[in-house]
Write the structure tokens for this entry.
Amino acid sequence: MDALVKSAIAHWAPRFVANGVALTDFEEVTGAVTLWNDWCRAWSNKAAVHEQMGREALANRKFISAGEHLQRAGVYYHFGKFLFVHDVEQMKAAHIKAVECRAAALPHLNPPGERVTIPYEGKALYGILRKPPNLAGNSVQKPPVLIMCVGLDSAKEETDAYERPYLDRGIATLVFDGPGQGEGEYDFAIRGDYEVAVKAVVDYVVTRRDLDTARIGLWGVSLGGYYAPRAAAFEKRIKACLALGGPYDWEGTWDSLPELTREAFRVRSHCATQDEAKRHALTLSLKGVAQNIACPIFVMTGKLDRLIPWQHAQRLANEVKGPCTLLLIEDGNHVANNRAYRWRSQSADWLAEILKSSS
């Protein structure tokens, strides 16, 4: 097994399982892959098994099963492409399948989802909106909404498990691919001033008559855990922010990041060289910005995180001006996905209380 495969498994295994990969499938795929060049193909082959079951269920009008199988297939295709940036053609083929599978699953999920188009810089960003059901099983009228910012190697096809705790508490979710992310990675480079992208999303949200646009939360995971507080410092329509496993800035951490992460950042920043990418990475910073965050904020990280040291979360918590809840999980890895039960429901409870008091 080569070093890149070992690195992917060591850093992200708990995330795969916590976000929808069956443990046995994970063990079978990673046990058979010895070269990084084979990673995307192996995950795509396993995804195709679930996709076929989903397509068959659709044909047989077994819609609940179809949604389950196709949702899982989308996650598998996503994890095939998530850091596979050295072969863009193969990566993009898996990415297209991930988008197709989750889109096909959306009408059959509980609650169902809607693909949305968000105008942005003369083109568009794409997202998924899901609204919580009421006791009769219909969508809640005008629920509060949580805008969800994904990370460097995540995308809206991965986030069903992240969405569910908020949906269960009556909060709509709008997860989107921003610049350098998912469907946005081809047209738009990663940008440190992510508040520009979030403003576009909030502008879209306020056009929706089926959402309570006076109660908007903002959530970010991994690099999104930088994007969300960065945007909250500028976008005052945000009533609450969650920063999960994110960096305060990239200064001092770039050289210690895994090779796969640095290269993915280079490609998704549209940089030609690693030196250029490092210079661009240093523009991602909360210095002089964090103190402008006045809304309530929930900051969480794992103290065993090998990608982003926990002190980044502590620094953010120390500098914000609004009410702050800081959760440091002693035995948590990156985003504490190995201890998801320690923060996913807790963060959703926190947000539900904040947004309720904002009504």
User: Anything to note?
Assistant: The chain has a mean pLDDT of 96. The first strand starts at residue 113 and ends at 120. The two ends are 54 Å apart (CA to CA).
